[in-house]
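Support case: user asked for a sample of complex input and structure output to validate their parser. Sending the pair below.
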Amino acid sequence: MYQFSQRFKLTTYVLMALGLLGLAYGFLSAPSTVEEAKAMVAAHDSDGHGSDHADESHTAADAHSAEAAHAQDSHAPGYETAAHADDHETAHDQHLLDQMRNRPWSAFYVSALFSFLIALGVLAFYAINRAAQAGWSPLLFRVMEGITSYLIPGGIILFVFFVLSALHLNHVFVWMDPEVVAHDELIRNKSGYLNPTFFLIRAAFFMGGWIFYRQFSRKLSLAQETATDNRNFVLNFRLSAGFLVFFLITESIMSWDWIMSIDPHWFSTLFGWYVFASFFVSGITVIALFTLYLKSKGLLEQVNTSHIHDLAKFMFGISVFWTYLWFSQFMLIWYADIPEEVTYYVMRFEEYNLPFLGMLVLNFLFPLLVIMRSDYKRIPWFVQTVGIVILIGHYIDFYIMIMPGSVGAHWSIGVPELGGILFFSGLFLFVVATALTKVPVTPKGSPLLEESKHFHY
Amino acid sequence: MASKIFRALYNDDDILMNAVKKVREAKHHIEEVYTPFPVHGLDKALGLDETRLSMAAFLYGCLGLTVATVMMNYIMIEDWPQDIGGKPSFTFIQNMPAFVPVMFEMTIFFAAHLMVITFYLKSKMWPFKKAENPLPSTTDATFLMEIAVKEGEEEALTELLLDTGAVEVQLPKE
C-alpha cells in the first residue's frame, strides 16, 4: 500500500496555498478602470521593455483587435467596423482593459485546463491499453487510475470557470459577449453553435461521459481483483473500445470549444489532433513520473526497466508526433498565407516569439536528442529530466494556444501564471496521491497480469 | 588452426538457448550459431557486444540532413531563386519551412539506405558472395552451434553437448 506521507501532504498544501496567493494577487492587481489600464501599459513601456508597445498593440493586440483595426482600414468583406471612427478610441481602450483583466483568469484557465487534460490523456492511454489488451501495461493500471481520479475535481473546477465566463465575469471567450457578437458578422454566423448555453451543455456532456467511463472502468478493474472469472475484464475491454470512439469525437469538439474558440475567427481542421498529441504526451509523461516515484518508494516491485523503457518510447514517439502536427498546421497556413488564417501565427511570431519557438526546443529537440538512445530510456533520471522538460514545454504550448486570444500583447509569465501552476500542481498531486492510497498499487486478478510481470524487451 | 571446431545440431530454439547458456557456463568458446529464424534473446545469451548500428544510423541521418540543407540552399537560394507562392527566397531561413519536408525525407533516406548497406557489409554480404552456411538445413529447421574445442577436451565437450539436448554432434574430419 502506498502511504501519503505527512511531508508530501504538507508540500501539496503549501503549493496550493502559494498558488492561491499568486492567483489572488493577479486578480487584485488587475486594473479595474480604463485609466488604470492605460497607466499600467504606459508604466510598462517606460521600462524600456517594448518601446513601441503601445503602438504595436493598437494594430496587433490579438486576432480580434487586429481584425477590427484591419476592417477600419480597408472595410474587408466579412468584417464590420467595431465602432464609428470617433468611438474607435474608446472601444480600443475598453478592449485593452478587457485584455488586462483577462490575464489572471487566463493564467488560472491555462493551468486548470492543462492539469485536467493531463488526466484525460492518461485516461485515453489507459483505454487504449485496455482496448488493445496490451500485455505489458496491466501492472501500471492502478497508477493510471490514480491519475485519472483528478478528472472529477479538475472537471468541476473547469466547469465552474466556464459558467463564470458565460456570466461575463471575464472576457476570455469574446464570443460570449453579446455586444461583440452584435458587431461581428463572422461570430454571428457561428452563434447557432457558439453560444454560451450550448457550450455549457456540451462541456457537461463531454465531462460527464469521460468521468462516467473512468468511474465505471475503475469499478470493473477493482471487481476483477476478487472475481473468479473474466467477465469484468471482458466488459471493461468492450467499454474501453466504446469509450475510445466517444473520446475521439468529443476530444476534437472539446478542443474547438475550449481552446480554438478563444480565437473565434480562426480555424484549423487538425486542431483536435494537435491538442490531443500535446496532452497525450504530457499524460504519458506523468504516468512515467509517478511510476518512477512509486518505484523509488519500494512499491511496484515487478515494474522493471522494460516498462520504463516502453513509457519512454511513448514519450519520445508522441513528442515527435506532436511536432509533426505542429508543423503540418503551421506550414499549410504559412504557405497559403490567407489573412484570416495567418493572423493566428503573425500574432504568435510578433508578440510571443520566444515562448512560441522556445517550446519547439523543449518539446521536440530536447526529447529527440536526449532519449533517442535505447539505453537512456531505461535510466530513471534521464526519463525524469526529459519528463519535466516535456511538461514545461507543453504547459507553454497551452499557454500559447490560449493567451494570445485572451490577453493579446499584454502577456508575461509572472505571479498569476506561476500561482496557477503551483495551485494546480499542488491540487493534482494531492488528489492523485490520495487516490493511490486507496488500493494496493500493484493490481491482481487481470488475466494479462502474468505477461506484464515477465515483460522484457 | 590451434583448436578444432565442433558442430552441435539442435531442433528447437528453446533447447538451443539453454544449451548456449550451459556451454558458456562450462567456459567453452562459441564461435557462431546458425538459426533458421532470429531467436529472441540469443544475442544476449551469446554475450555479443551491443550493435553500434543505431549510432551509425543517427550519423547517417545527420549527414542526410546536412546534404538536404546544403542542397536546398544551393538550388533555391543561391543558384536560381524562384518565387513560389510569393514566398521570400532571399535567405535560407526565410524560406526554411518550405524545405522542411525535403530535409525530413533526406534524413530518412540517408539513414535507411546507408544503414541497410552498412548492415550488409558488416555481415560480410555483398553481391556474388558465396554463402558461408556450413549446413543448408539451418535455413530450414536445424539450429547449429559451432564450438571451439581445445586439445584434450573433445570427449568432455561431446558429452556436454549431448547432455544439452543436441540431436547430433559433428566432429571435424581428421
